[in-house]
Backbone:
């Protein structure tokens, strides 16, 4: 029977044996988990042995496509990478986008599951029915962008699409990324897992088409969403990009600065998105199949172009006390070059800067808040894993444990994942979202900040109403990330669940109601948690760094605002209640059954 | 006169050449708030309009004022003639036309009327069953019609409204800015004058301060800042102003934001833009009152990134 929207199979690559096999994907799994992060989580749960060491051969590295990829629907050229994170020891689910995502679907698979460990550097080449492991000796130590160029040149085929790791991934820096076309599956250290397998790159070339059940219906919805994607709801992304957040967050006392010692940055104006746009803007570009085109390239004094997002700008700027946009651009370029997550890089360096200012880390000479040159130098040391970089490549949690003293107090992470640029004390719904997110301190798997920015809740006060808000946001994002639709399109839906259900039905031919899709989102969120529980999750893991619970905000409009442990605990309990979990955050059997999650 | 820079490039025309027969003395020179009424009115309008024209009857005396004076060719020919001569002398294509016997000028209402001109020729309030042609906006283009009316002897301005593109402002719209319709309270008799003075003193007492207006700062971020090419503007608003009035005044000051940041009705923001007051609260209810000194941030409603 013809399958619509999916190929119904995945490619399993065992790097240890070199065996490649195409295997069937059960229809029920695709119906229940869709693609992207849902499908990836489902495969992770099956392929990862319980308690697997993230950087060991047994940890599966999973790439997934999704039903909407290739349908022409705006913002859907995306893929997911799912594995067990070497940073958190819990789930790592990252997204990246553009042409590699389209090519992944074109090679005739819905997922790629990579296990094992190659004895020498290899890259995987897939051209539909042909798949092989090739030597990557000549690619080793090259940057991701250079690797893409070299693979295309070696194969004399400019249409090959490549996802690869840079030096940081090779060296198993715990926050290394996987990169394609300048974009990154950035968070959680998926690049380290790839590097630990001696897998430098994945190169794809395909022609396979996936039919959709109702091409005219899909085209009509796509046309409508394309039109909506060009309205005022996406103007921020189309006209300035995510860097617009910085100046606003600063005014709201929500801009983490100098390792969360401040909530405003006195030099914010100079590194604001508006200033960068006025002074450094070079051009905009976008992913494949995207009408929003949010990417902004900024030009540094040297004339080089650099892509910059809010998170990168915040993490390498205010978080490290850096006020010179030129340094931020250079630092971002280095992170891209080596393939490391800019948020974790900034977070770990900010931690190290505070250590150095407090007289710890004697080897961190010159590393101080605002010291740009030292920051740039340290990024290279991290990627090379040399000198102090050996410690910092472990991320802030492990580095703090190695350093001792009180250094864990100012290691700003949740579950080991460094915090993004949202101050939890002045964004209380976000505080809960960050504390409970299965992948650690994450601003993408739930958009809990939306409640804080909506005026619907008092952002400076927590409350038992937040649990339901965070649950809804997580489930919504789990659905979005599994269809996959870019977050920047999310507000263009009139009614997300009913419109997406209709879209999915027209793509797959399977019956979906908005209630089905809501349950799918909840199922995916719950399976992530279930995976974490299997890997040793304990209630104490859903918590925030001590600094946030001990120090009031000392500057800006939110000066004096605190987040108490009781306030956080009340919100966490309300979240567990909203999820029908028990009071300690474990999932009752009845809930699993209700969601159709069979436990092995 | 005030040193503040006028916010509107358009013109204001005051018809001061009426007969004042029932009043028994020249209305323009009635003492009001310690100065001649005409001076009081010009002072108010000068804060808004760069160009003010006062139309006088032949030989009429008035104080020295920083305005353009024009005189009706024929005395007491009525408002059509006054509007005609005023429009001809006005520097701008669009003018507010008022009269010298209406002391309670509501600047927010005037700004609103100005904003409604768009592709109309006349914007005229309709209050308590009557058009208010002497508190209305006219395009210079209508002078040819007025001239023809004068030729035909049609001395009432409302004959114009059927002939050109007229935007009628309904009572309910007016009440948003001027609940009691004080803007249309003119004085024809000594009793009217006494009542107006009493009302003025009452308003003065109600307002604890001398100044009726409040001042707030609107700070622009992201799309708004890039479009407006400015980071912040200071707005003077009536006491008890709410966010609707802020958006309205902002649209007036920065018309480039209408459509991209401020909704075409000028009373709300477009979907995708949000408003935060003093960095503390995001405000969804646009009837929220604004206080003097407030900082109002116009930001993207989407904090994602």
Residues:
């Amino acid at each position: 029977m013809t399958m619509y929207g999916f190929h119904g199979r995945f490619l399993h690559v065992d790097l240890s044996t070199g065996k490649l096999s195409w295997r069937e994907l059960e229809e029920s799994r695709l119906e229940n988990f869709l693609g992207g992060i849902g499908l990836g989580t489902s495969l992770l749960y099956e392929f990862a042995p319980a308690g697997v060491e993230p950087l060991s051969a047994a940890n599966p590295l999973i790439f997934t496509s999704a039903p909407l990829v290739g349908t022409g629907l705006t913002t859907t050229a995306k893929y997911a990478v799912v594995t067990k994170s070497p940073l958190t020891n819990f789930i790592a689910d990252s997204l990246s986008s553009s042409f590699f995502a389209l090519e992944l679907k074109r090679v005739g698979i819905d997922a790629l599951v990579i296990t094992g460990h190659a004895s020498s550097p290899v890259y995987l080449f897939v051209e539909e029915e042909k798949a092989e492991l090739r030597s990557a000796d000549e690619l080793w130590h090259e940057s991701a962008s250079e690797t893409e160029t070299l693979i295309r040149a070696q194969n004399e085929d400019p249409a090959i699409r490549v996802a690869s790791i840079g030096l940081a991934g090779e060296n198993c820096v715990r926050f290394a990324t996987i990169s394609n076309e300048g974009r990154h599956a950035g968070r959680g250290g998926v690049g380290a897992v790839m590097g630990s397998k001696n897998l430098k790159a994945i190169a794809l070339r395909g022609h396979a088409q996936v039919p959709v059940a109702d091409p005219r219906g899909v085209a009509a919805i796509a046309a409508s969403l394309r039109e909506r994607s060009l309205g005022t709801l996406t103007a921020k992304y189309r006209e300035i990009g995510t860097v617009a957040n910085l100046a606003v967050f600063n005014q709201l006392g929500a801009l983490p600065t100098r390792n969360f010692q401040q909530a405003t940055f006195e030099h914010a104006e100079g590194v604001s998105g508006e200033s960068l746009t006025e002074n450094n803007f070079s051009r905009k570009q976008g992913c494949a199949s995207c009408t929003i085109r949010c990417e902004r390239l900024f030009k540094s004094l040297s004339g080089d172009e650099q892509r910059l997002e809010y998170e990168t700008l915040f993490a390498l700027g205010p978080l490290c006390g850096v006020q010179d946009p030129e340094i931020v651009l250079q630092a971002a370029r280095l992170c891209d070059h080596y393939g490391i997550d800019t948020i974790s890089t900034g977070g770990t360096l900010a931690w190290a800067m505070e250590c150095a200012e407090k007289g710890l880390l004697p080897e961190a000479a010159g590393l101080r808040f605002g010291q740009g040159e030292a920051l740039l130098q340290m990024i290279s040391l991290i990627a090379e894993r040399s000198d102090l970089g050996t410690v910092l490549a472990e991320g802030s949690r492990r580095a703090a444990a190695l350093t001792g003293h009180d250094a864990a107090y100012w290691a700003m992470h949740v579950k080991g994942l460094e915090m993004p640029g949202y101050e939890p004390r002045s964004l209380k719904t976000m505080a809960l979202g960050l504390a409970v997110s299965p992948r650690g301190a994450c601003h993408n798997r739930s958009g809990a900040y939306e409640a804080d920015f909506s005026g619907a809740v008092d952002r400076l006060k927590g409350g038992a109403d937040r649990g339901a808000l965070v649950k809804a946001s997580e489930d919504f994002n789990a659905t979005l990330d599994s269809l996959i639709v870019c977050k920047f399109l999310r507000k263009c839906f009139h009614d997300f669940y009913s419109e997406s259900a209709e879209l999915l039905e027209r793509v797959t031919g399977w019956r979906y109601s908005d209630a089905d899709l809501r349950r799918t989102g909840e199922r995916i969120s719950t399976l992530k948690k279930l995976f974490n529980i299997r890997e040793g999750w304990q209630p104490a893991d859903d918590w925030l760094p001590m600094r946030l619970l001990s120090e009031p905000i000392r500057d800006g409009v939110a000066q004096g605002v605190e987040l108490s442990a009781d306030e956080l605990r009340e919100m966490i309990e309300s979240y567990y209640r909203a999820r029908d979990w028990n009071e300690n955050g474990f999932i009752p059997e009845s809930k699993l059954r209700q969601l159709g999650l069979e436990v092995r | 006169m005030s040193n503040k820079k006028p916010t509107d490039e358009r013109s204001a025309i005051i018809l001061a050449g009426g007969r004042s027969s029932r009043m028994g003395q020249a209305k323009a020179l009635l003492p009001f708030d310690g100065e001649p009424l005409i001076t009081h009115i010009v002072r108010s309008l000068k804060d808004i309009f760069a160009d003010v024209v006062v139309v006088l009857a032949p030989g009429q005396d008035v104080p020295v004022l920083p305005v353009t004076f024009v005189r009706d060719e024929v005395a007491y020919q009525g408002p059509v003639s006054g509007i005609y001569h005023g429009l001809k002398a006005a520097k701008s294509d669009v003018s507010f036309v008022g009269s010298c016997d209406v002391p309670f000028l509501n600047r927010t209402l005037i700004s609103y009327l100005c904003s409604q001109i768009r592709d109309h020729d006349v914007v005229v309030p309709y209050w308590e069953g009557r058009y208010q042609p002497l508190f209305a906006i006219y395009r210079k283009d209508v002078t040819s019609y007025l001239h023809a009316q004068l030729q035909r002897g049609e001395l009432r301005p409302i004959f114009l409204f059927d002939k050109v593109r007229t935007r009628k402002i309904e009572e309910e719209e007016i009440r948003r800015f001027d609940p009691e319709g004080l803007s249309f309270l003119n004085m024809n008799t000594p009793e009217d004058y006494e009542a107006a003075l009493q009302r003025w003193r009452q308003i003065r007492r109600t307002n604890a301060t001398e100044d009726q207006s409040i001042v707030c700062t609107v700070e622009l971020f992201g799309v708004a800042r890039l479009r407006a090419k400015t980071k912040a503007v200071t707005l003077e608003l009536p006491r008890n102003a709410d966010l609707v009035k802020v958006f309205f005044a902002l649209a007036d000051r920065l018309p480039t934001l209408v459509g991209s940041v401020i909704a075409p009705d000028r009373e709300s923001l477009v979907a995708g833009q949000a408003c935060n007051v003093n960095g503390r609260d995001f405000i969804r209810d646009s009837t929220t009152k604004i206080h003097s000194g407030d900082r109002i941030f116009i930001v993207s409603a989407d904090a994602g990134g």
